Amino acid sequence: MNSRHIFKMCNKLLLQQTISRSYGYKVVKRPDPKTLKMPAPGTTPSLMEIIKEKIKLNGPLTVAEYMHIVISNPTEGYYMKKEVIGEGGDFITSPEISQLFGEILGIWFYAETQKMGPGKPLQIVELGPGKATLLLDILRVLNRLGYKAPDLSLHLVEISSTMQSVQANRLCISHREVDLELPHNYEGETVSGIKVYWYNDLKKVPNNFSWYIAHEFFDVLPIHKFEKTEKGWRELLIDLDGQDKLYYRITAEETTSCKSLIRPPLDSGDRTELEISARGLGIARQLATRVDQFGGIALIADYGHEGEKGDTFRAFHKHKVVNPLENPGKCDLTADVDFSQLRIAASKTPSNENYALVMGPVKQKEFLERCQAEARLKVLMDNAKSESDREKIKMSYDMLIDPAKMGERFKFMAFYPSTMTEMLNKYPPLGFSTPLHDLTYFEKVKGVGAGDHLT
Predict the structure, then answer these.
(1) Alpha-carbon torsion 38, 42, 47, 52, what sign?
(2) Which residues form a coiled coil (predicted)?
(3) How far from 157 is each of 226, 265, 301, CA to CA, in Å?
């Protein structure tokens, strides 16, 4: 039998098989996404069980993978189940300590925007808004400075439905879920008519002139941990020991993360430990591009360093430092922000046209004092109703600026459009260089007392 005849027979058989398979398909009705609901907390496996199972199936986890699971698991994640900010939580933030903090930031944004133009219409975009306290204080200042509902809108980047609910109840007189087709997943309106939108990703926020606020946001983004050995940089992983407990181990070979993340100048000098957040670098680049291409300013405030630290990964529970590998989901995981890395990510590179002018970092004490925070402190104390209230206001301010508390550990960094080089040389950015001698903006808001609210 020749080969031509064999091919003819095979083609005939294959054709028959293809035709016969058309009767094997079954129509399956897909579920309606609108009717799907997440399991209730406590009805799913614990985070420790999930983590152990993943390690047993796939091997050790990177620290970044571990943090991602602990922070953002849909039902058992740390930020998904409860309010975690405040005296009753695991940590407290500057806006919760004193209204002065948010008011100074509001005045700073307004003053710097005047170097660009009127700044209207304005988008205020906050990444990880917490309990929305910072936004409430900024809105009170803007109301005093003449901003009305048509002049601005609020855009909140938040992955936790629990925190989203807290924010909506504090900011809005009405709020609701929206269709899945829209870029935002929730929306509301303040009592004065300001529109509020929630997103699960910065990329979905409209590209318009904006103030970008990232206060205690970068410190919770997942990090990769590396150590320098005799064979070069190696990654620290999280594994299970013989007693089924989590522990750190170092890789024998270079991981993909080693090859892709550790590049000059990050590994320069005599550093033997590195913490790098790939997501943090990506978001810093996004902010730089948005500010440069569409206008606005980005302000980052967080505790961190300028590349001198190595091992800062830790956990907080009830305001105390605890082992980050114990009780996952019940503790706040965090790492100091390496501001030198953010500067590299936001600054100009040969392959990018859009970049930012990076200012800072400067210590929180210096930033607040250069923005005349003491002038606002005096107004608040003069308007206090009692000596006890005055003492509380003063103690709160001291906590913000005391070098042993928040004054030096927390730092500020700002991104400006690259076109503002000449303007900033002529009028240096407030808080980052020369003090603010003109109290015009403070005079406008001096009548706002400690108990005043936006109307």
Answers:
(1) negative
(2) none
(3) 29, 31, 16
The total domain count for the chain is 1
Alpha-helix runs per DSSP H in 93-199: 94-97, 99-113, 133-144, 161-171
Record the tokens describing residue 320, joined without a space: 């105390």
25: in domain: no
CA distance 201 to 133: 21
The answer to whether the pTM exceeds 0.70 is yes
Domain boundaries, position 283: 78-223+277-445
Given a cut of 50, is residue 437 above it in pLDDT? no
Instruction: Please report whether residue 5 resides in a domain.
Output: no
- H-helix or E-strand spanning residue 337: strand 337-338
What's the CA gap between 358 and 298, in Å, rounded? Answer: 10
- Exposed, middle or buried, 52 (CB in 10 Å: 0-12/13-18/19+)? middle
pLDDT in tens, 286-310: 999 999 999 999 999 999 999 999 8
Q: Are 228 and 271 in contact (CB under 8 A)?
A: yes
Given a cut of 60, whether residue 18 has pLDDT beyond it is no
